Here is the input.
Amino acid sequence: MMEQALIINNISKHFNATDALKDISFSVNRSELFGLIGPDGAGKTTLFRIIATLLLANCGTVTVGGLDVIKDYKEIRNKIGYMPGKFSLYRDMTVEENLAFFAAVFGTTIQENYELIADIYKFLEPFKNRRAAKLSGGMKQKLALCCTLIHRPSILLLDEPTTGVDPVSRREFWDMLYRLKEHNITILVSTPYMDEAAMCDRIALIKNGGILSVDTPISIVNSFTEQLWQIKSDDMYHLLLDTRKYDGIKSCYPFGETHHIVFKNDMPNIESFKQFLCKNGHNSVVISKIKANIEDYYMNLSQQS
Here is the structure.
């Protein structure tokens, strides 16, 4: 049985009349890259702040490495690295000054744990004397990760670390996370990007403060047992509205340049469907079978909940 680095049991949190988290339970294994996947407002940041001992839950328990987040909060703060979604380093300090400051806060030095951040800091070294405020989005992200790692935490909490970052920097960031796993660091990362879910060992899908599913990305995709179709035409907006009016449609939602649909019948009459759309003014409809991905599964669960 794998050793568990984080155990969340029946956590709930409300702000006034709003339920931010509703009976959340899951665990994260040691050295696992675990993703918390969901849109803005789903409860990801609230949960991260509870794990990081910055916020108290209304009920439930959280243990980090066997330590309770309430009773043992001082010990936990030395064992975790928390990178909030908003850039929170000192903007008037240089790259090197920020890193040295955070090392001093935790009673260590840059040199003592340099091998842990070396692969990341190499991108920053040419700009070590530049103020943090003057860094690009990708460089700010790398500096924040270095400062989070400088005390060699056993668990990393990364709250939407790639939001607003260019695609190249996003890819570089995930490559860095893979390398960190080799140091036996447990990583819990939240993201609204469904394509990043496939990069995790396991994921939890969250919506409106509740967990929809917890499993490996492959198992979640394989759980989508219905046949999925994609459809497009010259008028995508009205195609969406008209498709949803068709009696044989179970679900239809926008997906990039197409709409993804599921029919009520496993063997739908495609010609009849096309004729229906033609009567509604759609004369250039293209429809084809496709394989589902994690976002399709999420949308399917969202409609059921």
In short: The first strand starts at residue 4 and ends at 15. The chain has eleven helices and 14 strands. The longest helix spans residues 167-181. Residues 75 and 155 are 13 Å apart (CA to CA).
